[in-house]
Design brief:
The structure is a single chain. β3, α4 and β4 form a beta-alpha-beta unit. With 320 residues, the chain is an alpha/beta fold. 41% of the residues lie in helices and 14% in strands. A 5-stranded parallel β-sheet has the order 7-6-5-8-9. Strands 2-1-3-4 form a 4-stranded parallel β-sheet. The chain has 11 helices and 9 strands.
C-alpha cells in the first residue's frame, strides 16, 4: 500500500493514492469490526496516548476503541487536570510526552496549528483529531469511506456541504479531500457563515438551500458551532432551521438516491429534521460512526508501519 506520511496532520499533503490506501485498508477493518472477535495484534507492544484539549466523546472513544482493537496500550490523558492548566506551555508538554516514548499520539486542540507544533517536537507519529478551524483529517476520511460504500465510488459526485462552513474544520478537510477526488462540491449556507475568500476554493457557493441541493448525490450537514461564534451570525435558531435546516421539503430537490450525512453531534430541529436523521433509506449518519473506528484503525496501522520502518533504518544506520 502506498502511504508515505510520517504524521496525519491534515488532508492537504495526502496524494490520491494515499487516500485510497487508507480507504482500502479501512474496508478490511470494517469486516473485522463486525466479527465476534474484533482483536488484532498489529500495534502490539506500541503505546498510544490520546490527548484531548477539547471535549469530544465520540472522537476520543473512536480512537480509543481503534487502538485497543489493534492491540496497542492506550492511555487517555486528562488535560483538564494536567500541568497545561497550571501554565505549562505546549512545547513543555511535547517534551514531557516525548520522554515517555509513546508510539502514537492522538491530539485535539482548540487552536489551529497546535497539533503541527506538537508533531515537530516529538519522535512518535501524531494524528490530528481536530485543531481549531484548521482540519479534522480522519473525519474527512471516514466520510469518504461512507460515501464510497453507499454510492459505489468517491469520484464524479455532486456533494453539497451545508451550514456553518466558516467555523468547521470538518468542512475544510472534506473540501480538500473531495476536491482531490474530482467531485463537484457545493457550499451552502448564510453569507455570515461562509469563510472569507470562499470564492477561491474552487467550488460553487449558494445561500439558498433549494438551489444548492438540486440534483445533489450527497447532502452533508454541519453542526452550528456556537462555541466558536462571537456575535450574531444567525438571527435565531428557529429562523436558521427555516432557511438552512434539512427537512423533507428541501431534500426533495436533491437526487432521489441522495444520502444524508452529519458529523455529529446533531442539533435536531436546528440543522436537521429528526425524521430525516433517522431515515434508514437516506441517512448514513450511523454508518459514519461505524466507519470512524475502521478508518482510525487503518490510519494508525499505516503510520505504525512507517514508524517501524524509520526506526529500523536508524538502527541499521547506527550499526554501520
Amino acid at each position: 500500500m502506498s502511504f508515505r506520511a510520517r504524521h496525519l496532520l491534515g488532508i492537504e499533503h495526502l496524494a490520491q493514492d494515499e487516500i485510497r490506501a487508507v480507504l482500502d485498508l479501512a474496508e478490511r477493518y470494517v469486516d473485522l469490526n463486525r466479527r465476534t472477535v474484533k482483536s488484532s495484534d498489529v500495534l502490539a507492544g506500541m503505546t498510544q496516548i490520546n490527548m484531548f484539549f477539547e471535549n469530544s466523546t465520540r472522537t476520543q472513544a473512536s480512537f480509543e476503541l481503534a487502538g485497543k482493537r489493534l492491540g496497542a496500550d492506550v492511555m487517555n490523558m486528562s488535560v483538564a487536570q494536567s500541568s497545561v492548566k497550571k501554565g505549562e506551555t505546549l512545547i513543555d508538554t511535547a517534551l514531557t510526552l516525548n520522554a515517555m516514548h509513546p508510539d502514537l499520539l492522538v491530539v485535539r486542540h482548540p487552536n489551529s496549528g497546535a497539533v503541527n507544533l506538537l508533531a515537530s517536537k516529538v519522535n512518535c507519529a501524531v494524528l490530528n483529531a481536530g485543531d481549531g478551524k484548521h482540519e479534522h483529517p480522519t473525519q474527512a476520511l471516514l466520510d469518504a469511506l461512507t460515501i464510497r460504500r453507499a454510492k459505489g465510488r468517491i469520484q464524479r459526485l455532486t456533494i453539497a456541504i451545508c451550514g456553518d462552513i466558516a467555523h468547521s474544520r470538518v468542512a475544510r478537510s472534506n473540501l480538500i479531500l473531495l476536491g482531490k477526488m474530482e467531485n463537484r462540491i457545493r457550499l451552502i449556507g448564510p453569507p455570515t457563515l461562509m469563510p472569507s475568500g470562499v470564492a477561491e476554493f474552487g467550488c460553487e457557493v449558494y445561500d439558498d438551500m433549494r438551489e444548492g441541493l438540486k440534483g445533489a448525490d450527497v447532502v452533508m450537514m454541519l453542526r452550528l458551532q456556537k462555541e466558536r461564534m462571537d456575535g450574531g451570525f444567525i438571527p435565531s435558531e428557529r429562523e436558521y432551521y427555516h432557511r438552512y435546516g434539512l427537512d423533507a421539503d428541501k431534500l426533495a430537490v436533491a437526487s432521489p438516491e441522495a444520502i444524508v450525512m452529519h458529523p455529529g453531534p446533531m442539533n435536531r430541529g436546528v440543522e436537521i429534521d429528526g425524521e430525516i436523521a433517522d431515515d434508514i433509506n437516506r441517512s448514513v449518519i450511523q454508518d459514519q460512526v461505524e466507519m470512524g473506528v475502521a478508518v482510525r484503525m487503518a490510519c494508525m496501522e499505516l503510520l505504525a508501519r512507517n514508524l517501524r520502518a524509520e526506526r529500523g533504518a536508524k538502527a541499521v544506520g547506527s550499526m554501520v
